[in-house]
Amino acid sequence: MKETLNLNAQAVLEAVHTAPSHPTALQIYETVKHTRPHIGLATVYRILHLLVGQQYIKELRYSDESCRYDAKTARHDHAVCMACGGLFDLPVAVDLPHEALEHAAQTVGMQLASHEVRLYGYCPSCQQQNH
Amino acid sequence: MKETLNLNAQAVLEAVHTAPSHPTALQIYETVKHTRPHIGLATVYRILHLLVGQQYIKELRYSDESCRYDAKTARHDHAVCMACGGLFDLPVAVDLPHEALEHAAQTVGMQLASHEVRLYGYCPSCQQQNH
DNA sequence: ATGGGTGCAAATCCTTTGCATCTGC
DNA sequence: GCAGATGCAAAGGATTTGCACCCAT
């Protein structure tokens, strides 16, 4: 299914994997330029779409900022800070009975493929600031 | 807490409420122009932010399209069609034990305020097309 | 020589902002 | 007359596209 990636694509994929959290296209571009100085931002975008299409990575969208990318393709949940907008991976899945999901999906006739839980609240550093 | 809304703001709020699903700013603008022909798109955006800030409505972001608005401010869950990108409100909340949420929130030190479940799958009409 | 991949710049889309004007008080 | 709201047009930021070029086949 997955085809071989050329050098640019490998560099982009590695940048997503090594990024501290969920990088934007621009951050990825800056990182990739270290190893591939000639690469253009448009190419980074083209490769990101390719990688998403082939399920190497996932695309994330939240708050009003730009699109972010996630190297963790396995199903997992997120927490969003309502103060700083930060997005955090939850290390453990929220325990959710499968029947409850199926039941909810059936109410709108949806054929269920996956799901995600998003927690909203205040992250540790934002809690301190407003103590 | 909530202040009185002027005529433009009332028209925008009503447009969000009467829209079939989750309208974009542009769709709201088109609707509002029927009753307030002089209104500008910038004003619609300004009012939408105001209404979000005062919790009259909620802002939604998903897929790669533009921002959408939701008249339903009470907590509820959504289903996203992976084929057509459609977003559907779930009429019933996904049954999720509160302890599970709190536990998940604690793993990242987050002070929990709210949450949302997102189901991903295929909506009825998209199921038919790919039968 | 051919085709896919690429860099660059221009274009596009959504959203925000600057500013002069208008409105109600 | 003032403060806040507004319309318009221009600016801004993220992403996409057009196109000529380059490289490996």
SSE blueprint and pairings:
Two copies of one chain form a homodimer.
Chain A lengths: L6 H12 L6 H11 L5 H13 L4 E3 L7 E3 L7 E4 L5 E3 L8 H10 L3 E12 L1 H6 L2
The first copy, chain A, binds a DNA duplex (25 and 25 nucleotides) through α3.
Describe what this molecule looks like in 3D.
In chain A, strands 4-3-5 form a 3-stranded mixed beta sheet. In chain A, strands 1-2 form a two-stranded antiparallel ribbon. With 131 residues, chain A is of the alpha+beta class. Chain A has 2 domains: 7-70, Arc Repressor Mutant, subunit A (Orthogonal Bundle), CATH 1.10.10.10; 78-129, Dna Ligase, domain 1. The longest helix of chain A is centred in the middle third of the chain and has 13 residues, at 41-53. In chain A, helix 1 packs across helix 3 (41-53). Chain A has helices spanning 7-18, 25-35, 41-53, 98-107, 124-129, and strands at 58-60, 68-70, 78-81, 87-89, 111-122. Chain A has 5 helices and 5 strands. Chain A starts with 6 loop residues before the first helix and ends with a helix. At the A-B interface, helix 4 and strand 5 of A face helix 4 and strand 5 of B. The structure holds a DNA duplex (25 and 25 nucleotides).
